[in-house]
Amino acid sequence: MDELMEFLEELHPDVDFETCDTLIDDGILDSFDIITIISEVADMFDVTISAEYIVPENFNSAQALYELITYLEDEG
Amino acid sequence: MQFVSYSFFLFLAIVFVVYYLIPKRFQWMVLLVASYVFYCFAGPKYLIYIAATTFTTWLTALQIDKLKAAQADYLQENKSLSREEKKLYKTATKKKQRHLMLAALLLNLGILAVVKYTNFAISNINAMIGLAGGQPLGYVSLVLPLGISFYTFRALSYLIDVYRGTIPAEKNGFRFALFVSFFPQLIQGPISRYSQIESGLFTPHRLNWKQVSFGLQRMLWGYMKKMVIADRIVVGLTTMTGDTAAYTGAYVLIEVFFYAIQLYADFSGGLDMAIGAGQIFGVDLPENFVRPFFSTSIKEYWNRWHITMGSWFTDYIFYPISVCKPMLNLSKWSRTHLGPVLGKRLTVYLSSFAVWLATGVWHGASWNFVFWGLSNYLVIMISQELEPLYRRFHQRFDVDGKLYFKIFQVGRTFLLMGFLRMYDCFDSVTTTWKMLLTVFTAGNWNILWNGSLMQIGLTAADYIIIAAGILLMFLVSMSQRSGSVREKIHAKPYIVRFVLWTALFMAVLLFGAYGIGYDATSFIYNQF
Amino acid sequence: MKNRKRKRFVRITVSVVIICLLLFFLQRLMMPKYSVGTQDGAMIAEYYDDEPKHNLIIIGDSEMYENISPLVLWQNYGINTYIRGSAQQLIWQSYYILEDTLRHETPEVVIVNISSMQYSEPQKETYNRMTLEGLRWSTSKVKAIYASMTEEESFMEYVFPLLRYHSRWNDLSADDFRLMFHEEPVSLNGYMMQVGVKPAENIPDGIPLADYTFGDIDYEYLDKITALCKEHGVELVLMKGPSLYPYWYEEWDEQMKDYAAEHNVVYLNCVNKEEIGLDFSTDTFDGGLHLNVEGAEIYSDYLGEWLQDNIGISDLSSDSALSRAWKTKADAYEAKKSEKYKELSD
Prior knowledge:
The complex is a heterotrimer of chains A (about 80), B (about 525) and C (about 350). The two termini of chain B are about 40 Å apart. Chain B has 19 helices and no strands. Chain B has a domain at about 5-205. Chain B is mostly helical and about 525 residues long. Helix content of chain C is about 50%, strand content about 5%. Chain C contains 14 helices and 5 strands. In chain C, β4 (about 235-240), α12 and β5 (about 265-270) form a beta-alpha-beta unit. Chain C starts with a helix and ends with a helix. The interface of B and C includes residues 498 and 527 of B.
């Protein structure tokens, strides 16, 4: 989680990822950011977020994203 | 049947009455029958296309859903399987599902490609044959079935969503047929998703006067944009673009402006009619335009213009390509070999290229559209690359958030998009480039004030109406930033509402560019 | 609650009434005023203002309404005539105008101009308008519209002419407001008077045609005209006016003769007929296309005599009400004549 937060804050230094839960709805993350996140996550956690998981609910907050990663790690 | 036709009003009125009189559980069937009747007006022989797409995607989605159910059952019954075994099993069933999905996908894209691009392909083959000195091939006469690009994309989004497991498959083929053919969105979208409009289409609707009048108001606003502005300004536009020898330089700049207005008023007006018509039946269709000309960057523009198409390409082309295994491997490789900066972007650049190529081809079967799409790609990528530079500039000169700077950005985006859009207006890519170049070389700026603009088929009265129409659109957009304009008007006293809407209606009636047009001289009896 | 509902009902009713009134006024305003514009479009409607006691009705295009003076027919022969003429009236339009007329009265004789047999398609949207707009609503009008529409036209635009003329806001004049509800009469029992002389010179012979046969649709409507007259006991005269141009082919004349013989109706071809006594160096105002008032009076005198001798049309001059009406009309006729001459000399 810490690793993820660090990366996200590097990506968008102006956003508070601890509290923000409208990252997609408010257009803070665009499609390019999402791809950057996914390829970073693939490196960091060895988890592939396939296209079906790219829905707003999974990317609206850092917490949701982390939950997705844990879920995918379990599902393998 | 066009939205701008007497028969459409009659059709809409009949459907409306039947829809709200019939028992509510039959309402969606009324819409289905109405949609197919609507489609028949374009020529009954095209029904086969939409029916084929509907049937194949529905059936495939159902099969995929069955496989998913079987998979769930199997895993439920065999809880003792190890993780590895489960994974293996899942991969195997997923593969079956993928094959099914791909078969239906390719079939329907194939139909679309054949009817839409056969002649484009032939013309390119002929060009090559011509170089080799051979006999050119004959063209085939295929007429595009009404709305095929739109309904195919709608059907495919459903298919992929079912495959991804985001939505369950629809068991009832007729209900699915309504989603594909729903008549307000048949001609020019929006490209809605099944999950967006399912409840609108199938929940029973009681007659809600506010909703109906909001729908009618939205339609009226669409008619005003299309008939008063677009259909009037288009006369001047086609005069100019039709004669590339005479209308160069400053005229091209005028064309850029005219075409921006014409296309927006026509397309978003059409969508207003579609969304308004949907609302009359209690079906909320997704928005397709959100004040695109207020965008400060091209990227923002594409989030506000033809939104449902853009998001389709993002969801079904950009993401899948970006996150597929080979792409992730490539990204990994490039980051170690090309450095972190370029490495990170390579995937984005490649998938965006695919998206813009597809967007260009989707718009029409010609090289103009391919170049148009790729030009958009180029501009977006360049501005992406320059972003750190911009950011430094903004900080250095402290312009962020300043109104004048925002206006500058909006103007810049408008012009840039306007120039790119000109690929639509000329018959070839090179003509477009040549014409755009003349803006800087012709030096005929005096046509802007020496009365030449009165010679392009628009009279002073036309200009006044167009200007008033644009002003009205602008004011409405300004007001819309703080919420629905119709809601704001709805909160006003009845007399105000009545005067406003009646005035708009009369304005469309009188100032709309429709019908035969009045030419006093043609009423002179001069036969003998 | 009940009160609120009532308020709502009243509000909606008032709104609808206001919108309808607004549309009605706009429509009256936007429609072209034929009486101050192209007068050829005004006469079909004027018919309804005259008392339906005519014993002769003439139906056709400008070869009728610019060539025949009903005043002469009355004064010399006691024939009470009305000309239901309109610009480029097509044969099916003539039929529906006949239907419409027979709904109001049954004359002794009907003359139908058959020069329109040469057209089997509507010629121009504006001519359709000028012919059809003046008709009162009836099944005849509906059928006439459907029979006449060109591809660009739509029935809705006949029902609500505002849709057709909406863009006239740019051409509005004071006359459009003045004549919104009542147009000034332009004709004298359907006669549009013309003055001045432009002699007929070098009238070209007709260009040979590939096919001289009239269209099926023309014959279809001519049959209907014949049948309708028989049904109503009206004597039908098929007439070709005395105009020298457009050229009336020998082959066309033959077809009409054959038709008349076969259907037992009268056919009267007045082109180049010596006994009429027309002199096309003085009696035409447009080089032989139409007659001026002098020519029309000569021709009408011939026509009256012919009708009396050949058809036995009755003389109504003893009808005192008609006599009185015609006296007023005669004054208007003379006034118009001198006014026209004054315009000409100015």
